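Changelog note: in this version the structure field was regenerated for every chain. One regenerated record is shown below for reference.
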Amino acid sequence: MSLSTSDAADRLDASRRHLQRALRVTAPAPAGAGARSASADFAAEALRVWWSRHPLRVGSEAAIEVANAVLRPVAQRHPLGLVAGAVLAGGLLVWSRPWRWADRPGLVTGLCRQLVHEVVAQGWPQGLAARASEKT
């Protein structure tokens, strides 16, 4: 039984159409995904508002601008020197072990207290319910 070229071309076109339809189909969202994404959006917004009022925000933005102004020309002229500096900075970071600073109770408690205050100030239960109803 031999197939003609037109039959093979028809089968190929049908196969391509079938694949295109299969790729266009999106999987349904799992149950409860809307509530999780709404709560994640709400938490991200609370974090964004908290950071916009934080006193270190202005200093960090200024430091970023200065670093861009200073490091951009260095990166263009001496890229390997910049990589070596990054290795040294990483080594100092590992040597200083800043992740151990987080076990200080006052630091973690103060940060968590500020974040919880922002969430409550934005109307956590009502805002979360409103965002969840918007998503569905």
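Spot check on this record: DSSP finds six helices and no strands in the chain. The chain has a mean pLDDT of 78.
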